[in-house]
Each structure stands twice: as C-alpha cells, then as structure tokens.
C-alpha cells in the first residue's frame, strides 16, 4: 500500500518535470521562430506603409491600416527592377543549364568509363574543391576584363558555371547503378551516350534535381562576381540592383519603396522553397554549404 | 580500349576546359601576381619580384582593421551559432507536434538573398525620420539609452554584424544537426534509460559522441565560412566598409581589386593568399583536435 503511493508520487513528479521541460522547449523554439520570421514580417509591413505615413510615425507601427500597394508599382518604375529581374533570370537559367551539360558527362566518365589516368584526374579535381573562390576570382577578373567581357552576360556566366562538388556528388550517385545494367545495354547495342541519357539520368533524377536547385539558389543570390564584373545598370543582377537602390536608389529615405523591392526580390526563391521544400532541405543536408 | 580512352576524355573535355581556364590557371596566376612588385594594371607591367606586396598589405591599417574585424566575427559567431543550433536541434528532436512547421520556418533564411534581407536588418537598427528605429524604441521601453547601431560605437556595429551573421548561418547548422540527431539509434537511448541514466548523462555519453562527426564538420565549415564574411557586412554598412570600420579580409581583397581605391591585383592577391593561409591553418588545427575527440 505504502509502496504504491510512493510510485504515484514519483510518477507525478516525473510527469511534472517532463512537462516543464516540454514547455521550455516550446518556448525556446517559438522564440527562434519569431526571430526568423520577424524580419520577413517587418519587411512586408514596411513595404505596405505609404511614405508619408512612414515618415510621420513617431513610434514604430506594427500594423498598417491602409496598405499602400503603389510602393510596388513605383519600385518597378523608378528603378529598372524588371531589368534586374530579367538579367538574373537569364543568368540563373543559362549558368544552371551549362553547368548540367558539363557536369553530367564528366560524372558519367568518372563513374562508368575506364581510361588512363582516371584516378589521378579525379583526385586532382577533388583537391580543387578546397580552393576558395577568393583566390581565383582575382585572375578571373583580369581575364574577363582583358577579353573585354565586362558588362556582358558571357562574362557573368562563364566563370560561374563550374562546380567541382556537383561532379563528385553525381559521380557517387552514378556509381551506385549496378554494372549489370550497363552490360545488358551493351549487349543490346546501346551506345554510351544513349545509355547515359536513357538509363543513368532517369535513375539519378533526384540528385540532378537537387544540384539544379542548389545551383539556382546560388545563382539567384550571387553578389560578389556580378559586382566586380558589371558597372552598367543594364547588366545588374538583383543583388547588385538592391545594393544600388540602397546606395542611391529612391532617395535614400524612401524605405517603404526599398522594402517593396526587397520583397519582390525575395519572393521567387521563397516560392521555389515552398514548392520543393523537401527536395531543397534534403539537397542542402547532403551537399550544401553557405557562407 | 584506345577508343574508350578517347571517348572518356571527350566526355571530360568541357569540364576540364572550364576548370583549367577559371580555376587552375587563376590559382597559379594569383601566386605570381602576389610576388610581382608595383604591377601596373593598365600597362600590365611590373618592376620586380619579391615580397613587397605582402609587407605592404600587412602594414596597411585597413587590412589590419579588416583582420581584427574578421577574427572578432569568427570568434563570436562560430561558437555562438553552433551552440544555439545544437540547443534548437535538441529541442526539435524532442518534440513531435508542429515539428515540421518549425523546421520549415527555421530554414527560410537559407533561401533568401543576403543583400536583400540585410537591408531589413539595417532598417530595424536604423533611425527613422521621426523615431529612433524599432530596436532602439524597444530599448527605450525597458528604460535603456538609444544606441546608434550602424554609425556609432565599434561594438554596436560589431553586434549588429554578428547578429545578422548568426541569423544567416543558422538554417544550415540546424538542418545538419537535426538530421544527425535523427540518425542516432533509439536503442541506445532505451538502453541508457533502462539503466536509469539522467538526461544530461545521456546527452554527454550518447548523443554528443554520436553526432560528433557532424558537429565537427559544422565547426570546420563554420570557421571557413565566417572567415569569408563579406556580403553581410555590405548589406548592413554599404560598399564603403573601410570608412565604416567594418571591413573584412574578403572585403579588403575586393576593394583592392576593384572599387574607388582599387586596381591593385597584386595587393589583392597577397591579401587573398594570407586569408587562405589563415583558413588552412585553422582548418588543420580543427582537424587535429577532431581526431582526438570525434568518434567515428
């Protein structure tokens, strides 16, 4: 009898402790969630305040009663935001497409073909992964300048194409496909090129989608190289555009309009993220790094 | 065999061309640049070979400022972001309800443009026309004095930079640590609980050793990433980082290469190589330490 009371007490205590720990956990997680979301909230909120309302508020307002959507139209008309967008879109699509065209055959060669010096070349290429961008960007800058490719799309795209890591990632994936499949295809008289297209690429589609998305994110946010290589507004990407707006865009005080531009620039990737949430998070967990 | 040899090289050719032109050649060239003295960008001539560029950079007040800023930034953000990410991931793995929602929210900063969201942080700390800015208003509510975060004392500026850096790097760390925690087998925990081990003991003796490879991976990449900080600073303080006293080593390299004071690829190269040596040293130290402490 006495024993069972003890048990109840112990159980009750344990439950209480577990609940307090749980409450603390949720509080901590919620605080961080707010810390993450608040800048986004503030960005959208500010972008909807009219300039006069914004500049006359004496205390920061957390709500807006009459949203000023004209900030968005003005963001497009007073700076070439549409142009920045188009440039970034072309840059992103072209860079990603060329990257795939280069990386897939290279990964195929390393995974599937036998040739002299394969291991040496592969090791050398892998060792290039350790080279930071800052080291090579200096010469690339001079190369592109000397070729008169400043302020051209080619100058923007070509040095940004290659990613050693994706060759490695894809090669690992290709290597997992059993050899029997290859021999069977060979017996049927399939060429290597056709085998790559019809068998390997479909099987490794998830990895290819992953590297595509990672590259798209990288391109959309790239800032340093475009900044070095473009000084004409007609070739600015969104990052440089936003920097230009910050330095001398709308008359530096028109914060609401600036925020409207920021929202517009942030939306495409967030939409992409919402659609491909699982793929992106898996991909980043497998191979992404950021700054 | 010979045929396959040729074909394989053909498949590799595009990748090799790109690597040769944009990675291998520049890599060699940057060392050459860094030793060519008084290189003239316009005429592409130089006067001699030596270590003058290095000594110039190492005596440049702007570089020393950048070096100091970068080291402070690394020393604050790497440990802090790793610890917070570990706490959050532990919290995440202990709950079931709304876990997915939290994970999705936490990942958002990863897919945003660093420059763009940096502007939001800027206006949070900046003075508005009629008030002191949101953060200062909150400080005033609690009876504190307003601080000029973006144009004022050094530590205030450094605080904002560290805060934004941590905000930016957290998604990656949380993601990696949550998946590392998820891969720890439940059996170990059950066995430990059966033996009556306390939560802290379970964490120290099971969780930490099991996730230590990933934790060290994060610390190593965290160091490398933090040493390369640049665009976060630009987003907060504008392009003229030198006058804001907030330049970083990478910022110094780019300023030397191309900006108002630019056109000195030799100095830029020397600074980039110094950065590379620093990062390499730190990474090696990390690897040596991890050999001792990581359980594979």
Task: Please describe what this structure looks like.
The complex is a heterodimer of chains A (291) and B (296). Chain A is mostly helical and 291 residues long. Chain A has two domains: 2-47; 71-287, MetI-like (MetI-like fold), CATH 1.10.3720. Chain A has 15 helices and no strands. The model of chain A has no long low-confidence stretch (mean pLDDT 87). The longest helix of chain B is centred in the first third of the chain and has 34 residues, at 2-35. Chain B has one domain (57-293): MetI-like (MetI-like fold). The model of chain B has no long low-confidence stretch (mean pLDDT 88). In chain B, helix 5 packs parallel to helix 10 and helix 7 (154-182) packs across helix 9. With 296 residues, chain B is mainly alpha-helical. The radius of gyration of chain B is 24 Å and the shape is globular. Chains A and B meet through helix 1, helix 2, helix 4, helix 5 and helix 6 of A and helix 1, helix 3, helix 4, helix 5 and helix 7 of B.
Q: List the chains of the largest interface with their residue counts.
A: A-B, 91 and 94 residues
> Which second-level CATH architecture of the largest domain in chain A applies?
Orthogonal Bundle
Strand order of the largest sheet of chain B: 1-2
**How would the global form of chain A be characterised?**
flat
Helix content of chain B: over 70%
Helix content of chain A: over 70%
Q: For the report, how would you describe the main beta sheet of chain B?
A: 2 strands, antiparallel
Question: What's the total number of strands of chain A?
Answer: 0
What would you call the shape of chain B?
globular
The named CATH superfamily of the largest domain in chain A: MetI-like
CATH superfamily of chain B: MetI-like
Radius of gyration of chain A (CA) equals 26 Å
Oligomer: heterodimer
Approximate strand percentage of chain A? under 5%
Contiguous helical run count of chain A: 15
Overall mean confidence score, pLDDT of chain B: 88
User: What is the rounded distance between the termini of chain A?
Assistant: 63 Å
- Poorly predicted tracts of residues of chain A: none
